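Hi Q.,

Before the meeting this afternoon, I wanted you to have the glutamine prediction in hand. No need to reply - just skim if you have a minute. The sequence and ligand are here:
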Amino acid sequence: MMRVGVLAVQGAFAEHIAVLERLGVGAFEIRKLSDLDGSIDGLILPGGESTVMKKLLSDLELFLPLKKLIDEGLPVLGTCAGMILLAREIDGGEAPCFGTMDITVRRNAYGRQLGSFACTERFDGKEIPMRFIRAPYVTRVGGSAEILSEHDGKIVAARQGRQLAAAFHPELDDDTTVFYMFLKNVSDYIDSKE
Ligand code: GLN
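Predicted structure with the ligand bound:
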């Protein structure tokens, strides 16, 4: 069975675990270093507050081991704050977290009032529901990173290798398109290890 770890130090991790369980995927919470002792086939970085997660990642000594796993090709899905954690660059000069994806993001990019809204938008050739909560968007995509979705002329989803990032919250809607794309990366990764 696939084993997907969900960073569970802060934010919307419970919703991600519920989706994985619904899809029959083995999910576990990552709260401390020893949670990484078993096998791991994929990683989800949920929404929440990226500055808080960044601090907890280093306080809990999870930062370096997780960065190493991502650098070595572990499939990752970052949603909202999770996308910010993956970005190489944050508009305004704030220090990046993992910085493993060649994208620049703008935090709270829709302003305080307009920050939370729902829409339907094309993602990988399909219309899917999207919910944004004080969301970032992507202002630059570089290297081998590619755009997966745009809303109102702003990039809201991207991928690079086995890294997948969305500014919205797929775990809050019933549509599983984003999760299936991530889980395809997970099964490819498992095949590549065998
Ligand atoms: N505003 C948050 C941040 O900048 C992200 C919001 C979210 O994850 N829902 O970290």
